[in-house]
Amino acid sequence: MEIIKTDRDKYMRAALELAREAALAGEAPVGCVITDARGNIVASGRNRQEKLCSATAHAEMEAIASACAALGDRRLSGCTLFVTLEPCPMCAGAIIAARVPRIVFGAADEVAGACGSVINLFEERFGHKPAVYGRVLEDECSRVLSDFFAKLRL
Hints:
Blueprint: H1 5-24, E1 31-35, E2 41-46, H2 49-52, H3 59-71, E3 80-85, H4 89-98, E4 102-107, E5 131-133, H5 138-153
Parallel strand pairs: 3-4, 4-5
Antiparallel strand pairs: 1-2, 1-3
Helix pairs in contact: 1-5, 3-4
């Protein structure tokens, strides 16, 4: 299934709104939405590491858990995950475990990116290999992150 550019941008903008909410709450600004095969947003998530005092409270982890609950299945076949920052190894592992067939990310993560920036876990010998579309609305996604961290440094 090819992702149409207008739809891709629409869903990434929804993830960006969640990233901005995270920033306002003092969290690293990362947002994620998951759509079903019909293009309906079935789940969303944003970083909550500070609030929950949890290293695992990433946007993707929250969205995957919510999508599994909403769809009543641990496998997210037919879904697409849109996230503003390239998934880390933990989130890539969750994507593999949930069998998400497509990932769309915004900004590359040169420090912890597991879709090619540091490593591409989806090219390893795991039983599931999703299609990955990177750098969607990259400038906007990067700007939200850089603005947040610039304010922290002040």
